[in-house]
Design a protein that fits this description.
By secondary structure, the protein is an alpha+beta fold. The protein is 22% helix and 35% strand.
């Protein structure tokens, strides 16, 4: 691809659109179904990296991800406990719940990283035609935090071999990042090549997400609970020694059915491997 490939982390949070009018943050909207989202403008002022006022009087829709860093997640649960509320189970759920919450007696801090912008040329003083990296640079100059400022960064690669190398670098960085990621996004950097590739219903043809392998941890099986579902099916559940897996505290995991237990040969007290891949599994 002549214009190269922009490689950035796939952040594990909640996608939103931030609408600025004449440089002022006027509205926040969740991604929803891709066409209609929920108005969460009440969250304005609680998100680091998303200023209430840009450095320029521009009208632009900034798209990106809101998340809780590991530090923010820990602090959020301290605040929740102090107010008699149930702690969040993981940063992603905590972020989604916090974005929608209204009239809480406390504030939970979150962080924003932009990965895109839409604006009319006359409303935006920075280049929208130079490529993805140039758009991110313009947003940063206006005061918005972008994926380029994240600990995983944004790198433009000239070849697919370089892309593969960068994906491997981000995968190696993953355990030490201050926030969760679940993959890497590769985009055509050049705006003309993006326009030529076009869009599908919910995603562009010029971008692809590469999912990283699931994070695995080992813990001990301490018991089994037997539950009966609404349809009358017996659903066994493993009780585990509590363990953190990629930002989530895990104490239970599905055992599917009695045949699964028999075939696996698992016994109480065994060491088991737990992994997180979209949902918690074991």
């Amino acid at each position: 691809m002549a214009g190269g490939y922009a490689v950035e982390p796939k952040l594990d949070g909640a996608a939103i659109a931030a609408r600025y009018r004449d440089g002022r943050l006027a509205q926040l909207i969740t991604r929803g179904d891709g066409a209609h989202g929920e108005d969460i403008s009440h969250a304005i002022g609680s998100i680091t990296g998303l200023p209430a006022q840009l450095a320029v009087a521009a009208t632009v829709e900034v798209r990106g991800e809101v998340l809780m860093t590991h530090e923010q997640f820990t602090r959020a649960n301290e605040i929740r406990r102090a107010h008699g509320a149930k702690p969040f189970s993981n940063p992603r759920n905590g972020t989604a719940g916090t974005l929608r919450a209204k009239e809480r007696p406390y504030v939970i801090d979150m962080t924003f990283f932009a990965y895109g912008a839409v604006a009319a040329e006359e409303d935006w003083p920075f280049s929208l035609g130079g490529g993805h990296a140039a758009v991110m640079a313009g947003l940063a100059e206006a005061g918005v935090q972008t994926t380029a400022a994240s600990a995983a960064g944004l790198v433009v690669c000239a070849t697919l071999e370089e892309v593969q190398g960068r994906v491997e670098e981000i995968a190696a960085l993953r355990p030490g990042l201050p926030f969760g990621i679940d993959g890497v996004v590769i985009k055509a950097d050049d705006a003309a090549e993006q326009a030529k590739a076009g869009f599908a219903t919910r995603h562009p043809h010029w971008a692809i997400a590469y999912k990283l392998p699931a994070v695995e941890r080992q813990t001990k099986l301490v018991g089994v609970e037997w539950n009966v579902g609404r349809t009358g099916i017996i659903a066994p559940r493993a009780v585990l020694e509590r363990i953190e897996v990629d930002g989530s505290i895990v104490q239970y995991a599905t055992l599917h059915n009695p045949a699964f237990i028999r075939d696996s040969g698992m016994m109480i007290g065994d060491t088991v491997t737990v992994w997180k891949a979209g949902v918690i599994s074991a």
